[in-house]
Sequence to fold (307 residues):
Amino acid sequence: MSDHSHAEKVHIVSYGQYFLIWLGLLALTIITVALGGIDLGDWVVITALTIASIKTMLVLNIFMHLKFEERMFRIFVLVAGITMAIFIILIFSDYAFY
Amino acid sequence: MSTQPTAANAVSHVHRDDTGSKLGMWLFLFTELILFGGLFIIYAVYRFNNGEAFHLAAKELDRLVGTVNTIILLTSSMTVAMSITAMQEGRKKFSMALVGITIVLAGAFLLNKYFEWGHKIEKGIYPKSPEMMNMPHGEILYFGLYYTMTGLHALHVIIGMTVLAVVMRQMSRGVINKDSYVRLESGALYWHLVDVIWIFLFPLFYLLH
Fold:
């Protein structure tokens, strides 16, 4: 582990960048609501969850500073995400194909 | 970590590990992920087995109210994120105002939720109501999950408001300041989690007709 002083680690995100991310999140919300009015059949759930995942990535990376933190944070989040994915995949392998 | 005294440590004379504090917060957030994740799995399995009923029941929900609440939460996430920038720049008053706005927006979210639930309860749709017990099995499951998941989320909104209120008080007293603001960061992290959970709740309950 390298020795960073507190001052070196500080990454200040500009107000403008937060505002842009907010605009992006709003745009994605409008898209997902608009798509809700169209009958996409089986794709409805997949598109809704894909858009929700993109929104989550934006919040995690910028709002929650994951992009600017030490690598360890991203590894932690990755492990948590994989754990959750294993839960979901195992449950569905039981329910979808019996 | 190196034990080399850094500028920040030398000034404050107290042991501080901001990275450790934030990592601890993230670990706590993972337990929240598992808590809500379990409920999302239950939702997924019930939906898989009762597709048609979930379809019909979702029509009861007001898409506009859900959309407005989504925008409110996304905006509150931005303001609390901006409050960190303001604190880093040493603009204490502005930073506090941004946290204040976040708390007000959280209140607006809850007010919306109150009217939404109230409207449903007026129509006789609430757990164990005669109206609900006469519904098809799948719709009972849908509304049960609706009340459980949005209710648990609303509880998190209330907790988040409390956390942010404490953070604001510590800001005013100078406990949280330009050189030491990890508590503000952790409070903000919690608030963003509340936002992320809603990002998934919203399409799953309001949009998938």
In short: Helices of chain B lie at 7-12, 18-49, 51-58, 63-88, 92-122, 130-133, 137-172, 182-207. The CA atoms of residues 76 and 102 of chain B lie 5 Å apart.
